[in-house]
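Materials and Methods. Structural model of Cytochrome ubiquinol oxidase subunit I. The 487-residue sequence of Cytochrome ubiquinol oxidase subunit I from Streptomyces subrutilus was retrieved and submitted for structure prediction as follows.
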Amino acid sequence: MTTTAHLLADAPAQLLPARELMAFTLATHIILVPLGVALPFITLVMHHRGLRSGDPVALLLARRWSAVMAVQFAIGIVTGTVLSFEFGLLWPGMMGRWGDVFGLGFGIEAWAFFLEAILIAIYLYGWRRLKPWTHFWLGVPMPLAALMGAFGIIAANSWMNTPRGFTLDASGRPVDISVQQAVFTPMFGPQYWHFVVAMFLTAGYVVAGVYAVGWLRGRRDRYHRLGFTVPFTLATVLTPVQFLLGDNITRKIFHEQPVKFAAAELVWETGTHVPEYMFGRLQEDGSVKGGLKIPQLDSILAGFSPDTRVTGLASVPADERPTATQATIAHWAFDIMATIGSVLILLALWYAWCWWKRRDLPQSRWFFRCAAVAGAASLVTVECGWITTEVGRQPWIVYQNMRVAEAVTPTPASSLWIMFGLVVVVYVLIFGAFLGVLLTMRTRWRLADEDSARARDGAPEADTPYGPRRPAPAGAPGARPGPGSTR
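The predicted structure was written out as tokens:
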């Protein structure tokens, strides 16, 4: 029997469905997180531009983005609540023993969540009802609340990666808890800023990608140009920053979680002059099959010298490290994330070069094709980042303190598989409704723009967020009857 098969045979039957359910709900929820964290800021940037320059197109974009922000937040309420319940339902061993140590992070996230809900409601209500600048300043706390929510979640996750702020009594339970040390662990800073910049960068590419598609379809008006330029510029500025932050967090993992680093880089034996493998698959005997081998590069990347000593997976017992399959998954996720990040840097440089030379957007359709794909590619990197973080930590749910198998629920595996199936069905319906609402909003806005263009000889929509409402054309859906109408 192979080592992997032996470890799986010793695992509780309910471990696999519990992990699959948690992975599915986290992977689907995280699709919404970039817009939840960064769209309030991007919207306010456009809002400020519109107020400062008296630009009705910018104000129109800000108002429409705020509507998308509200719909996304509503869906995030559902998926985020499911995740919160799953921590207690699927992993009672962890929450029961360690909740007092790291639970503050979840409390911070909950408070931020409710605060953001109130702020979004006020911001949406403020269109047409508040003075323009008063409305803008009431929206400024929205990004701060989003960042506070990210603070709570990353504080909890970074503690799971580098647990601090406690001592263990004779029975193995945590005592003498220090909240400050539990929150500000060695991984917190690198992980928080890497996560936040990833959210802003991804949201910028996602929003810009929508208008890049419109540009490719011939919609070359100022509405699409502005809708593309503002979020794409933000993403362009942050892309090289994120590359440096990614290098920093990888080096921090090398020092704080050497076994996870070994899994992500497919390092089997501890030593110096360690090669770097691009993709490839780790075998049970420690060999790597396939992929591109670059001599000495892994040691150079880890410590800026080929003499850097890198810890290998074989340095710890088999039940204290990821399996060969888990290491391969973490490695592929890491390499995909790094590859996409490198391509995005090239796209950002292309954009920056054209803007520096001509103060204009690139003219190539290939640029806009790449920009349209960049949003989806950025979401893939976000997914890969979490896969690297969670799979690379295996078999620990609390690094070097509690295994995943020790934390799992005693609920029968059959019940968990049924729950998994029900959650998949519900999520398909939820995300289908989300997509349907967005498409309906897009269609309605496009019809409104076409009506406005006909009414004003191609000018942008005149029904600005702070101006008087323009009466809908007679016979249009939702049009109100005029004076003297018998309707």
